C-alpha cells in the first residue's frame, strides 16, 4: 500500500512522511540541504452535498497557475549554477532543456543517477504541445515563443543527415551531450515519431516551413529503417545501427505520423509503412497486451508492463472505429486491462482513482492518472456511458490537489523529485477536461471553443501566410478560424516518467 494513503484518509492539510521508494533518489540525495517533505502540502478535501470530491481549485486556475510557474520568472526558481544552462552558442537555455527533474526548490540533485539528464524527444515534445495548448487557451504569446525556441533547439541537436538514423532527435541528453544513461550510444526511434507529431502541430500553429521539413525528415528515416515486420528497435545506435534494446510496443506514434504526413501532402507515400506498423500492433500487443519498452530511464525487463502507448492506441481505435471493424470492443478490452493492472483507489480522496506509471515504477502519478481519465471522456462518448465520465472527473478533481502553493504541480504526494514532464503533462490533459466538460472558467471565448473542436487535417493557421518567418508571425494571437484544435494537440502522445533512475529496487546501485 502507498504509505501516503492512511494520512490522506482524514483529509487534512499535512506534511507527509514516506518510506524509501525503489525508483526514487537515495537517502543521500534527499538528506541534503533541501527537505522536500516540508515543501509538500496536502490540502483539505472539498466535497459536494453528495460526498463527491470537488477540485481544490478550478481546472482553469490549475492550468493558469501551472503555466505561470513555467513562464513567469522560472529561471529565478532554478537554483543551479547559471553557467550550466549556457549552450555551445553562448545562449542561456531554460532548465527543461537539460534537466528532466530537480529538487522541489529548483536545486539540482547532487548525487542521483539522473541528476543531469533530459529526455528531449519525448519530454520536449510534451512541453511543446503544452505550450501550444496554452497559447490557444490563454492567447499568451510567450508560450508560443517558448515552444518555437524549444523545437528549434531539438532540430539543431538531431542526428547528422548522413547517418543511417538521420535527422532524429535524441531521446536522452546527459550532461548536455547526446545519448548516455540507459540509452548509452543510442536513441529511441519511437520518440522521434512523437517529436515529429509535435513539429507538425507547431507547423500548423506558425506556418513555419522548417517544422514541416523536420517532421518530413523524421518520417523518411523511420520509413527507411522500418523492419519487415513493421517495427523498429527500441534503442539503436543511430550511426552504427547496433541494436541496444530490441522490443517496444510503441509504434502507434509512427502510425499516426505516416498518416499525418500523407494527409498533409495529399498522397500515399507512407501508406505501406503505416499498414505494416498498424498490422503488427493489431496482431501483436493489442491481442497479447505486451505493452512494454517505453521509458528512457528503465532497464530492460521482459516482465515489465507500461500503459502510456496503450492508452494512445486505445484513442486511435476509438477515433477509427466502425460498426464492422470491432475497434470499439478492442478499445474497451485494453482499457479494462489498464484498470486491472495499474489502477488504485485513492483512499481519502474517494471516489477518485489513480493510475500507476508502470510495473517497474509502480506508483500512482498525476500525469498518468489524468491521461487515463482524459481517455475515459472519449470512451464515455463512444459508449454513451455517463458513469465513465463521472469517474474521469473525480480523478481530474483529485489531481488538482497536486498543485502546490508556489504553483508547482508535483508528481505525487510521496515523490522527492519534481519533474517537468509531470508538471506540464497535467496541464496538457486538463485542456481535454475544460474542452469536454465545459467547467466554469474553462472557455475564454466562443472562438476558443471552436478551436477546441477542430480536428486534424483542417486548414493551417493563417499566421504563417500572413507573417511569413519572424517574430511578427510568432507573436500573433491565435485565429479563431484557423488555429489547430486542442483535440489534435492533446491527441495524447506520451508523457513523462518516473522518479529517479526508474528501475527496480537496487538495480541502479542506489
Write structural notes for this entry:
- The protein is mainly α and 510 residues long.
- The chain has a single domain (5-489), classed as Glycosyltransferase, CATH 1.50.10.
- It is built from 21 helices and twelve strands.
- The chain has a three-stranded antiparallel β-sheet. A two-stranded antiparallel sheet has the order 1-2. A two-stranded antiparallel sheet has the order 3-12.
- Strand 9 (343-345) and strand 10 (353-358) form a beta hairpin.
- Helix 3 (59-71) runs antiparallel to helix 17, helix 8 (189-206) packs antiparallel against helix 9 (209-225) and helix 15 (366-383) runs parallel beside helix 17 (420-437).
- The radius of gyration is 21 Å and the shape is globular.
List keywords for this structure.
510 residues, mainly alpha, Glycosyltransferase, 3-stranded antiparallel sheet, two-stranded antiparallel sheet, 21 helices, 6% strand, globular, disordered N terminus
